[in-house]
């Protein structure tokens, strides 16, 4: 036996400790030809990266606790959001020109409480079951909305009938291969009309840990990150769908959250657990919208005048450029 506490090789009482895997700085998983071995080594490499990242995070936390008030401020991580290219059409809340435009635009009667929202929800020609259920659930989210399933009736004929019956907005849900994939929102009687691409539709039964069915209370409305003139117009279109005075006793919230020009819709119920904690339940449905065009006036596919059209090859040249 050797002296000291170091064990002699071959005379230990237990199995040798596993060696720590250290990859060289120039290690590349792609150089491994065997597919299974390559996948296994990639998982081990990712595991090592996570351990090193966690150890560095703990080390920095201890250093900050030791320095106390003298600790340097935390570094702000770089994201696509905070590196966004400045848009000259960003709205200033104190801009007199913006205030004048809002006082005279098509939504002014709604914001001046001269009109009460009344919405017609319809579909493409001969909708399938999933689209029908989505429209029914959307009608339970938007107060004073009515569902009409059209069969062969053109939108140009529907719009005059809506205006005659005092509808303020028309929502059309389009589908492709039995899946809802588009939404047309037209403000009546003078427009504008927005065309959205719809994706990630989830009905109530498809949402995990969902709450009970929504009540008939008027929900609160949250609009996030609609900062440009175009985004401001879209936000006002969504606001005009809901009555001005929400019924807070219902504790229901409809949210339109804009992030990188994708508009995420969520419908929640909240409850105050204590003075500092709030619990939320998602009620559904949920979906994501991407603006494709904004048209002046009501829907007119042939002779309509467009305010804005999304042109991918011209507008999507930078990942840090957003329009809403």
From TrEMBL:
Residues 117-300 form the Brix domain. The keyword Transport does not apply. It is found in: Nucleus, Nucleolus. Pfam families: Brix. Residues 63-72 have a biased composition (Basic and acidic residues). It comes from the Eukaryota. Residues 1-22, 48-75 are annotated as: Disordered. GO terms for cellular component: nucleolus; preribosome, large subunit precursor. GO terms for biological process: maturation of 5.8S rRNA; maturation of LSU-rRNA. This is Ribosome production factor 1. Keywords: Ribosome biogenesis, rRNA processing. GO terms for molecular function: rRNA primary transcript binding. PANTHER family: RIBOSOME PRODUCTION FACTOR 1, U3 SMALL NUCLEOLAR RIBONUCLEOPROTEIN PROTEIN IMP4. May be required for ribosome biogenesis. PROSITE patterns: BRIX.
């Amino acid at each position: 036996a050797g002296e000291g506490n170091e064990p002699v090789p071959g005379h230990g009482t237990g199995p040798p400790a596993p060696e720590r895997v250290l990859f060289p700085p120039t290690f590349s998983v792609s150089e491994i030809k065997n597919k299974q071995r390559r996948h296994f080594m990639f998982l081990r490499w990712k595991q090592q990266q996570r351990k090193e990242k966690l150890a560095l995070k703990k080390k920095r936390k201890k250093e900050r606790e030791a320095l106390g008030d003298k600790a340097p401020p935390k570094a702000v991580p770089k994201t696509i959001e905070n590196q966004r290219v400045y848009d000259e059409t960003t709205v200033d809340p104190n801009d007199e020109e913006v205030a004048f435009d809002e006082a005279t635009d098509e939504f002014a009667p709604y914001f001046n409480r001269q009109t009460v929202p009344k919405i017609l929800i319809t579909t493409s020609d001969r909708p399938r079951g999933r689209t029908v259920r989505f429209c029914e659930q959307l009608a339970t989210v938007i107060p004073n909305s009515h569902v009409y399933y059209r069969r062969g009736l053109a939108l140009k004929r529907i719009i005059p009938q809506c205006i005659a019956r005092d509808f303020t907005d028309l929502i059309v849900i389009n589908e492709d291969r039995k899946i809802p994939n588009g939404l047309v929102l037209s403000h009546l009687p003078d427009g504008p009309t927005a065309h959205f691409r719809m994706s990630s539709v989830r009905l109530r039964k498809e949402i995990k840990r969902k709450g009970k069915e929504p009540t008939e209370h008027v929900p609160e409305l949250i609009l996030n990150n609609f900062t440009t003139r175009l985004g401001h117009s879209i936000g006002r279109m969504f606001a005009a769908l809901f009555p001005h005075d929400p019924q807070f006793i219902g504790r229901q919230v409809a949210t339109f959250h804009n992030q990188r020009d994708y508009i995420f819709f969520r419908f929640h119920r909240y409850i105050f657990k204590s003075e500092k904690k709030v619990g939320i339940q998602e009620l559904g449905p949920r979906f994501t919208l991407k603006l494709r065009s904004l048209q002046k006036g009501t829907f007119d596919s042939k002779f309509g005048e467009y305010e804005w059209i999304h042109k991918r090859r011209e507008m999507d040249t930078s990942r840090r450029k957003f329009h809403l």
